[in-house]
């Protein structure tokens, strides 16, 4: 077994449009400009964030030739996410060939969801091809769960938590006893809550209609669902929730509708997640929107008042992660948590390498 020598862990997070690098030493994390600088930083190991592990990778894996070949076979499950990760692996292995490389998977955290949650009601032949709910954002949700336990000063055991990861992609996850019990994203990261450029949950019949009646091919549908849908499509423009919220405040009806759809679907997702939990003790907001948009937090919590959520508006308006913004008497705590995926990845790398 490959062992971890002393020194920091380089965390590589290769996205579809960016490459983020952090050197993590204990609980300290430092951004790194490029792989050359990372190699000079005497990294002891490299951890790679990989979005989709399929059924094969349900825990961190040392990235040897066999594992990398298996990852290539999974690229079709998430081409916009896994293909850049594979490119990042190649570049990092070339820059740091003498240290172990470990893949850490967003889907792995959701391996604990029960069969009744993971299974689609589709033909057995399709299910045997691996078509099921996988869930994503697992590394961010895992970190948020850790911080929630610390902020609430209670163990994961018995805690009924819903984590909202709201950013370019958006999801809600039910976490019971520290483990994923349900989540809104499914076979791919397209499912669930509407996102900036992705539609969220969509009747597949609509896609069949567009293909049969209007001649759209698979590539055209894929492009529209990944890049030209979501809140930007509803608002008729904008580059994210902040600009859409500003346009809505200025009286733009389309932007107002986009924001209404977003808030409603988030609140509905939280309510649905409580079915898996049998109630709710805490709601955590993470991701760029979850951390920074007091407006979205307020409007979501207002819709969820029937669950016993009571927001401290002054605390919400001035919130900086990591903090509790619920009113003193709220039956449900409301947390704002900064996502620190790189720390979770580094911990998994150390555990995988002993």
Write down the overall mean pLDDT: 94
**Which of globular, elongated, flat, extended, rod-shaped describes the shape?**
globular
CATH class assignment of the largest domain: Alpha Beta
What is the share of helical residues? 40-55%
CATH topology of the largest domain, by name, is: Nucleotidyltransferase, domain 5
Q: Bin the strand percentage.
A: 15-25%
Q: Helix/strand-derived class?
A: alpha/beta
Radius of gyration, CA atoms, in whole angstroms: 20 Å
Describe this structure in words.
The protein has a 6-stranded mixed sheet. A 6-stranded mixed sheet has the order 9-8-7-10-12-11, sandwiched between helices. The radius of gyration is 20 Å and the shape is globular. It has 354 residues and is of the alpha/beta class. Strand 11 and strand 12 (333-336) form a beta hairpin. The protein starts with 8 loop residues before the first strand and ends with a helix. It is built from 15 helices and 12 strands. The chain has helices at residues 35-40, 65-73, 79-95, 115-118, 124-128, 138-152, 204-214, 218-227, 230-235, 241-249, 253-277, 287-292, 294-303, 313-317, 341-352, and strands spanning 9-14, 19-25, 28-32, 45-50, 61-62, 101-105, 160-166, 170-176, 179-183, 282-286, 323-324, 333-336. Helices cover 42% and strands 17% of the residues. The protein folds into 2 domains: 9-105, 2-Layer Sandwich (Nucleotidyltransferase, domain 5), CATH 3.30.420.40; 138-336, ATPase, nucleotide binding domain (Nucleotidyltransferase, domain 5, 2-Layer Sandwich), CATH 3.30.420.
